[in-house]
């Protein structure tokens, strides 16, 4: 497969947190993805961009919080995360760029 521009629209950026690092020890990588992206589309994009075999994709839709910004209330955007579990023997190094 070749990487298309649509794949870069689906996969926004990797998420590097304590929870994502713990998931990577079990062969999973966490990405921020487009809100309207489905699991098969996410799987196809990861396999095309990184050249790995994907075992499963789990998604989480996090609603934006209401936070104070310079004393005024503001709302953060909704975020969709994808926990991508890779087949045995496949790895993605998210610390380097694409």
Structure overview:
This protein is α+β, with helices and mostly antiparallel strands and 98 residues long. It has one domain: Alpha-Beta Plaits (2-Layer Sandwich). Helices cover 26% and strands 36% of the residues. It contains 3 helices and 6 strands; from the N terminus they run αβαβαββββ. It has helices at residues 5-10, 18-24, 39-50, and strands at residues 11-14, 28-33, 54-62, 66-69, 72-75, 79-86. The strands form 2 sheets. The protein has a 4-stranded antiparallel β-sheet with strand order 1-2-6-3, sandwiched between helices. Strands 4-5 form a two-stranded antiparallel ribbon. The chain starts with a helix and ends in a 12-residue tail after the last strand.
How would you classify the helix and strand content by structural class? Answer: alpha+beta
End-to-end separation in angstroms reads 16 Å
Rough shape? globular
Specify the CATH architecture: 2-Layer Sandwich
CATH T-level fold name? Alpha-Beta Plaits
What are the segments in which pLDDT stays under 50 over at least 5 consecutive residues? none
Strand content: 35-45%
CATH superfamily: RRM (RNA recognition motif) domain
- Count the strands? 6
- What percent of the residues sit in helical stretches (DSSP H or I)? 25-40%
Number of structural domains = 1
The CATH first-level class comes to Alpha Beta
Report the order of strands and helices. Answer: HEHEHEEEE
SSE blueprint and pairings:
Layout: H1 5-10, E1 11-14, H2 18-24, E2 28-33, H3 39-50, E3 54-62, E4 66-69, E5 72-75, E6 79-86
Antiparallel strand pairs: 1-2, 2-6, 3-6, 4-5
